[in-house]
Amino acid sequence: MSLRRYALAALASAIFAGSAVAKDYELLNVSYDPTRELYQDYNTEFTNFWKANHPGDNVKIQQSHGGSGKQARGVIDGLRADVVTLALAGDIDEIAKLGKTLPENWQTRLPDASTPYTSTIVFLVRKGNPKGIKDWGDLTKDGVSVITPNPKTSGGARWNFLAAYAYGLKANGGDEEKAKEYVKTLFKHVPVLDTGARGSTITFVNNGQGDVLLAWENEAFLALKEDGGTDKFDIVVPSLSILAEPPVAVVDKNAEKKGNTEIAKAYLEHLYSPAGQEIAAKNFYRPRDKAVAAKYATQFPKLELVTIDKDFGGWKTAQPKFFNDGGVFDQIYQAQ
Amino acid sequence: MSNSTLSASSAANAARRGSPLSRRLLIGFGWLFFTLFLLLPLLIVVSQGLKMGVGTFFDAILEPDALSALKLTIIAVAISVPLNVVFGVSAAWCVSKYSFRGKSILVTLIDLPFSVSPVIAGLVYVLMFGAQGFFGPWLQDHDIQIVFALPGIVLATIFVTVPFVARELIPLMQEQGTQEEEAARLLGANGWQMFWHVTVPNIKWGLIYGVVLCTARAMGEFGAVSVVSGHIRGVTNTLPLHVEILYNEYNHVAAFAVATLLLILALFILLLKQWSESRINRLRASAAEE
């Protein structure tokens, strides 16, 4: 082998090795509305974690937030998300079905049905609870105004809707017609439907609309944490609610195209690590990890929780039945 | 001068002035309305932005995401406004210097973006260039990103600002007619010379006025851009979108600080407009004297 050829080979391998050692990543996480603070914290944690194992890499994580359904629509229409962290599995199912950018069995690829943290739906009321709201039944009393976002565009709103419906079923001994009647009356008390959960929170918290906000537990805690929040609002935990499971997934085709497959996977897997779970708990999401959950147990009230899979047959059944065109939501809302 | 003309002119003056009471009421009402609905809200925006002091104000404006939003806004304006100038001048030229079939339809179409909701303008581009859109598969194959990236934002901005330059120039050029251009041609000027030495000086101030309005709208556009932006922080957020994001993140001071920045840009543009407007009026007045 001539010296020249040897030098060339050395050069080539140096370039190759160099590119394997130091890489620039730009990862886009398309998420739903109330996770802004969670992922702000988590992105810092993950960047440090990745750099500890891959010194020399540059990692830049970009965020996009909005109503979960709207965000899914964006990804279907070509928003190049490497990972989606949305409010419910139904929205990622839509991306798999219409966008064809990830396989339909995406939810089996990570533990706990790809849901690293959970939450539930609680009530946020004005300080001292002037309207005396204790449970779902009180929301349909005269003169009570309820704030919730639009189930068509917001994931949180769909959890709200199903929680209310579950209460309607329980209060009426499982009678579906009476449950529909209950949610129909409930939505007569809703003056405005924002497109996302954060929009509704702003409507309730800043603009002073409504007596009660149906909110993600984490969103309600966050509203209390904001300056002066504890002087203005109380959280009311209803007798029954729903286990809200916001899942995460790598959008395979986008990640491949951008050369981000490896880091996108690591990004989601690290959410399940003790450090990731700790950040979730600190941002008022219920952690899956038993040790972290025990540590933060006092933070989260205990209540009866129905689940999407056991009580509603999963999102693949619930989405068309309740929220697609002509579904229960359309029936009860258009009839007004 | 006869008495009758004197009394007639003083009567006209009196009519112009109106009775003292109703005049004062009207002016008072005008000021009240102006203060309540324009001045006060704007002052609140500025005062909210400065609530935590000048330091926080500048932190909010100089923060990387805000700077990238400012940069994106400037890029969108810098691309869409010149294109609109070219389109506006050619459209106005066509409409005012030639007569042809379908002219009134063209004039109506130029106004279309005024009547179409900006949301529709945004959705149109998603339906055309989105992954599921008409050109979607082809664009994907060639790895070209239009919506949820800069090109989509520029397209949406162009759509909503199309009428401004043309609308400003059409009446101006119609009023001026074609005589001067004809004279230039008779004196041996070629098309280009005629355009630069006769037409452009004539329409200069109207053009500047149109550009100013166009710039103001391009900078402030929210609806159409919101649909095609994808809201990626630090990448596809323009200034108005950035204001909304900050507001939704309980970051009020920063939201109002960035809003103040937009307001300052708008005021600057408004001053330009006032200046060009006064120039147009002076030109018109001198033209009328001749």
UniProtKB/TrEMBL annotation, chain A:
Gene3D superfamilies xrefs: Periplasmic binding protein-like II
Signal peptide feature range: 1-22
Compartment annotation: Periplasm
PROSITE patterns in the record: PROK_SULFATE_BIND_2
Keyword terms: Periplasm, Signal, Transport
Highest taxon above the source species: Bacteria
Pfam families membership: SBP_bac_11 (PF13531)
Family membership noted in the UniProt record: Belongs to the prokaryotic sulfate-binding protein family.
Protein name according to UniProt: Sulfate ABC transporter substrate-binding protein
Source organism: Pseudomonas kulmbachensis
Phylogenetic placement of the source organism: Bacteria, Pseudomonadati, Pseudomonadota, Gammaproteobacteria, Pseudomonadales
Automatic annotation (TrEMBL), chain B:
Domain ABC transmembrane type-1 as annotated: residue spans: 70-273
Keyword set, alphabetical order: Membrane, Sulfate transport, Transmembrane, Transmembrane helix, Transport
InterPro entries on file: CysW_permease, MetI-like, MetI-like_sf, Sulph_transpt2
TM ranges: 25-46, 66-93, 105-126, 146-166, 207-232, 252-272
Membrane topology type: Multi-pass membrane protein
Subcellular location: Cell membrane
NCBIfam families given in the database record: 3a0106s02, permease_CysW
UniProt subunit comment: The complex is composed of two ATP-binding proteins (CysA), two transmembrane proteins (CysT and CysW) and a solute-binding protein (CysP).
Task performed by this protein: Part of the ABC transporter complex CysAWTP (TC 3.A.1.6.1) involved in sulfate/thiosulfate import. Probably responsible for the translocation of the substrate across the membrane.
Protein name, UniProt field: Sulfate ABC transporter permease subunit CysW
Source organism of the structure: Pseudomonas kulmbachensis
